[in-house]
Design goal:
This protein is an alpha+beta fold and about 220 residues long. It is built from six helices and ten strands. α2 packs parallel to α5. The longest helix is centred in the first third of the chain and has 19 residues. The radius of gyration is 21 Å and the shape is elongated. InterPro entries: AhpC/TSA, Peroxiredoxin, Peroxiredoxin_AhpC-typ, Peroxiredoxin_C, Peroxiredoxin_TDXH, PRX_1cys, Thioredoxin-like_sf, Thioredoxin_domain. Its main location: cytoplasm. It catalyses: a hydroperoxide + [thioredoxin]-dithiol = an alcohol + [thioredoxin]-disulfide + H2O. Belongs to the peroxiredoxin family. Prx6 subfamily.
């Protein structure tokens, strides 16, 4: 086995999967030292970006700030991360406020030693060995990973989709319903398939359900 292949195998790390407990961490941030445990009881959007003072990242941070109040109304906090220093983060935050008129109010992790990035698999060696990709981890109030999104360095993220994703996950938790493609609050949601023939028959005759077939029914989200 070549030295290069051996090195690649050593660098392979497991990514947290949906349903896993989110890896714990303690990190220096623009709001002081924080632990993931500090957010217990709230949902968290943990997201990484490649570097401070870069155009796409700047547009993303402004866009994240624009949905911060909507997320907070959903008991969801934002937590950014890159491998820049806390002083770089502070300078960038001040620059965004001065040049763009937007105050970034959420903490940003200064992950210089890549401890958090490695735990969450935020560095994609095929794309960059030094910068974190555009990863998004949705972590629920019990600190379980509920969704994972990865974007390449070249593509900024879509904030309405992140907001929609949190609403959909919380609706599933609260109502026991699944959400179809392009679902948004106010739309009908999908009811789990019936477990018995009798239940399927009852559902087919219940006007509260909109059924295409016995296994495919929707209803209003109460």
């Amino acid at each position: 086995m070549s030295e290069h292949v051996e090195q690649q195998e050593k660098e392979v790390v497991s990514l947290p999967r949906i349903g896993d407990q989110a890896p714990a961490f303690e990190a220096e941030t623009t709001h002081g030292t924080l632990q993931l445990e500090d957010f217990k009881g709230s949902w968290v959007i943990l997201f990484s970006h490649p570097a401070d003072f870069t155009p796409v990242c700047t547009t993303e941070f402004i866009a994240f700030q624009e949905i911060a109040d909507d997320l907070r109304a959903l008991n969801t906090e934002l937590l950014g991360l890159s491998v820049d220093s806390v002083h770089s983060h502070i300078a960038w935050v001040r620059n965004v406020k001065e040049k763009m008129g937007v105050e970034l109010t959420f903490p940003i992790i200064a992950d210089l030693n890549k401890d958090v990035a490695k735990k969450y698999g935020m560095i994609m060696p095929g794309e960059s060995t030094t910068e974190t990709s555009r990863a998004v981890f949705v972590i629920d109030d019990k600190q379980v990973v509920r969704a994972v999104i990865y974007y390449p360095l070249s593509t900024g993220r879509n904030m309405p989709e992140i907001l929609r994703l949190v609403k959909a996950l919380q609706t599933t938790d609260e109502k026991g319903l699944a959400t179809p493609a392009n679902w948004n609050p106010g739309d009908k949601a999908i009811v789990p398939p019936p477990k018995t023939q009798e239940e399927a028959e009852e559902r087919a005759n219940d006007p509260a359900y909109e059924c295409v077939d016995w296994y495919f029914c929707k209803k209003d989200v109460d």
